[in-house]
Amino acid sequence: MGHISPEDHVGRRLKFRDLQVFFTVVHCGSMAKAANELGLTQPAVSDIVAGLEQMFSVRLFDRNPRGVAPTIYGHALLKRGRAAFDELRQGIKEIEFLSDPKAGELKIGCPASVLGGTLSMAVGSFSRQYPRVVLQFDEVTSPGRDFPTLRERQHDLILARIARPLVDEDELNVEILFQDPLIIAADMRSEWARRRKIDPAELVDASWILTAPETSVYISVAEAFRQRGLAMPKISIIALSGHLRMSLLSRGPFVTALPSSLLRFNAAKFGLKILPVDLQIDGYPVAILALRNRVLSPLVGLFIEHVREVSRSLVAPQ
User: What residues form DSSP beta bridges with 162?
Assistant: First the structure.
């Protein structure tokens, strides 16, 4: 018999099901919870983990009263194994795409304010063109800095506003779609809406619905007023969600600042008016993000191109 290398030894024994069990144990932090999630018995999960540890001749988990936590060896397997597992999954998706280009599934992370504005047109037209493609959207916080669900391959793509420098940007492909300035708006029935022109100084004492002081929207508004030599307006209501702020405008003589793309698609729905104020609030670019070294399915490329087309229409002269 010839010499069997360690790579061959592992290659003949390692199963992707074993990796799935390993990932689930890491995610759950417990053998029992992982067994419940996978529909297996706890001894079966323990045996698979023990087999992996024997195969690699290292301890993959530290046991503690609360459950288990990966060792440095476990973290190494998690990082490399997840990439290998994801490559196989993407290969399966590509085979499915080649056999039926109009079917498949995409998992996308996106803040509600971007989905409710920019993507509302793209999703509608894409779904009409590819009715058997399932688009799964999960809300992610924006602005984000590290986008862990993207790095952990829970999402194929992230669409978000980039308000702060990204963590480990070299690992990400970041494509800026368009700049999304903030616009000041009020309820159509308010006194503010009846004005033909509003001096920014008048808004210092207005009742504002705005995000918390440490957030990017607040900082942008404060900077715009500072550049005019004005104090930051007082906040009557603090609300992070753009949709909630739009809804609350109808409850009184409030004003707020919202992304232009969000107002474009929702002003009529919520009965809002963009106020005639000579105040430039820069806002932030909307971007599409993907892992740099991850091979994505062709279906992802179709969706990205669709979003690009919609984004070009947003910045085109009206």
Answer: none
Q: What is the pLDDT of residues 144-187, one digit of tens each?
A: 556 788 877 889 899 888 876 665 667 888 888 888 899 999 99
Query: What's at 298, amino acid-wise?
Result: P
In the beta sheet, which residues pair with residue 237? Answer: 209
* Structure-block tokens of residue 80: 């490399």
**pLDDT tens across 226-247, in order?**
999 999 998 999 998 888 999 9
To 5 degrees, how large is the angle CA 249–CA 278–CA 310?
A: 70
Residue with tokens 């609360």: 66
Asked whether the beta carbons of 141 and 241 are under 8 A apart, the reply is no
Distance CA 257, CA 263 (A): 10
Q: Taken in order 54, 60, 65, 66, is the CA torsion positive or negative?
A: negative
| Amino acid type, 163 | A
Alpha helices in 100-201 (DSSP H): 112-115, 118-129, 148-151
Which are the contacts of 35, defined by CB distance < 8 A and separation ≥ 6? 41, 42, 44, 45
pTM score, whole prediction: 0.63
